[in-house]
Amino acid sequence: MPRGFAWRAAIVAAACGLAIVTSRAWAEGKPQSEYPVATDARIEQSGESVRLTMTLSSIVEVDAWVQASPDRVIVEMPSTNFQIQPSARKAAGFVSGYRYGLFTADKARIIIDLAQPATIARTEMKTVRGGFGELTIELRKAARAEFLAEAGKAKKPQEAAALPVMPAVPSKPAGESRRTIVIDPGHGGIDPGTLVASIAEKSVVLAFGKALKEQLEASGRYRIVMTRDDDRFVALSERVQVGRAEQADLFISIHADSLVQAQDVRGATVYTRSERATDADAARLAAKENEADSAAGLETSEEVQDVAGILMDLARRETRTFSGVFARNLVDKLGGSIKMHKIPLRSARFWVLSAPDVPSVLIELGYMSSPKDAELLNSPEWRGKAVTAVSGAIDNYFARERASVGRAAENRN
Length: 413
Ligand SMILES: [Zn+2]
Description:
With about 425 residues, this protein is of the alpha/beta class. It has helices spanning about 5-20, 145-150, 155-160, 200-220, 235-245, 280-290, 290-295, 310-335, 370-375, 380-410; strands at about 35-45, 50-55, 65, 70-80, 80, 95-100, 105-115, 120-130, 130-140, 180-185, 195, 200, 220-225, 250-255, 270-275, 340-350, 360-365.
């Protein structure tokens, strides 16, 4: 049994029984080629109203509601292929911006950010010339109290009902002898992550994750599971649960940071989880990354609840040690081939690293706010070097682990 600890199976079985997650990475929706296509969007203000109009290849069912803190309008519709010009105007009147993307395997969302309270005056989907669908969302400026009353008409029960439950049986195939590595490209779909110029963190980290998967699989030594391999949203709790259900030997979350006020800050950083952050900057980053669920309009996001008990304490302690060992390997290897941050190994309270029984690290590949880093993050040559370093660190980690287990066995003899 990998890592050779009998308590793992018991913990995984217990954990899977209580876990409730949102859209599952393994839940298959329609192929993307069958999605309706959104081709055009316009936003305009007239008097006290702001209207968002979107043209779609067909009529779809839409649902819209307002949500407070942050104040916004959420429009939910079936999975849609958004082919809207990135240059399309995004703000008008009290609407400070809007974004769109996949939310679950079968749903997409448009999230409209409000600079001032507003309510939904009209949600309409009608057929226009050529059989296209035209979606109109009309918002009207409202008093704070009126807005809050609307937002209070809870959407939560419906949202909860839509949450699929984790399968009770771990997903890892029986008899699998290769190490399982979960690669977790951050953000996705409706949550773009950091945006600098027209580059989204979600795209940078997905490209990296896919390249890493390819290289690790080519070695034949590893079984790779991705929390997402396309542009879709995956909730933080779900990412953690994928690692647990797959009984992963390692969980690697991939991100890219930004510090707009300090564009000279550069380099990659490896993070592990700790209750207390090593520094203020690490705490700021963890808080930002922990907001990913909120970016998609999930009202509540909670950390994965641990199963209490002595087995879990044992697991947590050991997991922390393994995470630290792997993180140091990563810093060594990465440091040999790419630019690192001046403090390359740090920790903070990242929710995505909260699995008590899966060694987990988070890599911030660099700062998208640094022009130099941004250029590298998009360069296939840089990516190739960094991917090779990460896979080298993985090989090292498992080789050392095996060696130490071997030494422990010798000592017993
Ligand atoms: Zn991120």
